[in-house]
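User: I would dearly like some help making sense of a protein record. I have put the entry right below:
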Amino acid sequence: MVILAAFGASLAILSEAEPLEELAEGNLVFHMFQHFLIGLGGFFVGRSLILLRPDGSLLPAHLLKGGYPWAALFLSLFTFWHVPSVYSAAVLPGNELLHLAEHVSFFSSSLFIAVVAPYMSRGFKAFFIFLFGNMNSMMGVLYSVNGGNLFWPYPAYQQNEFGFLMSITGFLTMSAGTYLYFVLSEPGSASRSTEAES
C-alpha cells in the first residue's frame, strides 16, 4: 500500500519537475504527457487508499452510487480541460492558478475513479473504458484534421502530432482496453458493486 502510494505521488511530482516541466512549456505533446503522468499518479494513490480499507468502508455506500456520478465527473472534467480555448487559457502567462486547478483536477478525479472503481459493475467499467477511449479517439481526430491552430500557444504542427497520438491511443483503449478488461477482469466485481449499493 505504501509503495503504491509513494509510486503514485512520485509520478505526480516527476510530472512537475525538470526537465519535463520545461519541455511541457514549449511542446504540446510533452504537456499532454505531463497530464497523463498526473492522472496516473492520482490513480495509483487512489488504489493505495482502497488497500487501506479493503472492507469497503473508505466511502459511505450512499456516496458510491455504483460509481456513476464519479465517472460522469471524471469524463466531464477531462472534456472541459481539453476544450482548446480552455486549455490555451490555462497555459498563458498570468493564469498560473487556472493551470494549477487543471492539474489538481486531473489528479483528484483520477484518484476518485480509482477509489470507486471496485464498486462499479463489471459491465459499467467496460462501458467506461470504451467511452473514455472513444472520447480520446474522436478528440484526436478532430485536432488532427482541423485546418486551424486550435491550441494557439503552440505551433500548429504540434497540434497535428498530438491529435494523431491521441486518436491512436484512444482507439487502442476503446478496442484492446475494453477487450482485455473483459478477459482479465475479476468475476466478483459485480457482486461487490451490488453489496456497496445496498
Observations:
- Confidence is low (pLDDT under 50) at residues 189-198.
- The two ends are 28 Å apart (CA to CA).
- DSSP finds ten helices and no strands in the chain.
